[in-house]
């Protein structure tokens, strides 16, 4: 199945819901029989999800069971940095494709601090965080099916100083013409999302897009 297949999307939503119910049940149930049933639900969710995201169901089941407490989305922060009609992108070593600089949000840091830290670590650039452009539920966009459930925060940023340098997670850094972007890491950002962000900036709107 592909991410454009409505059946795959529906199955992803069902598997995610089952996983969330099981995780919450394991967190709050005290009955041993119920706990065993919730663990079985975790395995079922993993079996449903694994064909969609090319992960082994046993591996995925272990990942599911490591999630403890109430089921919540994880937060991904990204920097949208333009220079005229060019966009700053980083090449991910994980899949050798390109994305906006960013990554998981860290505890004890604000979202803007997190994205500035990610930009510095991945590109060598010090940036100013101007505003939040988008807060998106990745399950509602054209990303491939993936785990975990993610909310994506994309910030408008501008470069203040620094020189390009790569990291162990990033092999290349560069500005690319918006009309000729390299292959994108679609688990992290999609062409349609970049198009929406460009239109938002060019419109002069002060509002954040969401969902």
Short summary:
The protein has 211 residues and is α+β, with helices and mostly antiparallel strands.
DSSP, total strands: 9
CATH architecture term of the largest domain: Alpha-Beta Complex
Task: Name the strands of the widest sheet in spatial order.
Answer: 5-1-7-6-9
Mean pLDDT: 93
Largest sheet: 5 strands, mixed
Question: Can you describe what's shown?
Answer:
This protein has 211 residues and is of the alpha+beta class. It has 2 domains: 6-66; 74-210, Nucleoside Triphosphate Pyrophosphohydrolase (Alpha-Beta Complex). Helices cover 38% and strands 27% of the residues. It is built from 5 helices and 9 strands; from the N terminus they run αααβββββαβββαβ. The chain has helices at residues 6-28, 32-53, 57-66, 111-123, 191-203; strands at 74-80, 82-83, 86-92, 98-99, 102-104, 125-137, 150-162, 170-177, 209-210. Strands 5-1-7-6-9 form a 5-stranded mixed sheet, sandwiched between helices. Helix 1 runs antiparallel to helix 2 (32-53) and helix 2 crosses helix 3. The two termini are 24 Å apart. InterPro entries: NUDIX_hydrolase-like_dom_sf, NUDIX_hydrolase_dom, UDP-X_N.
Kindly list the characteristics that best describe this protein.
211 residues; alpha+beta; five-stranded mixed beta sheet; 5 helices; Mutator MutT protein; catalytic activity; Nucleoside Triphosphate Pyrophosphohydrolase; UDP-X_N; single chain; 2 domains; elongated; 38% helix
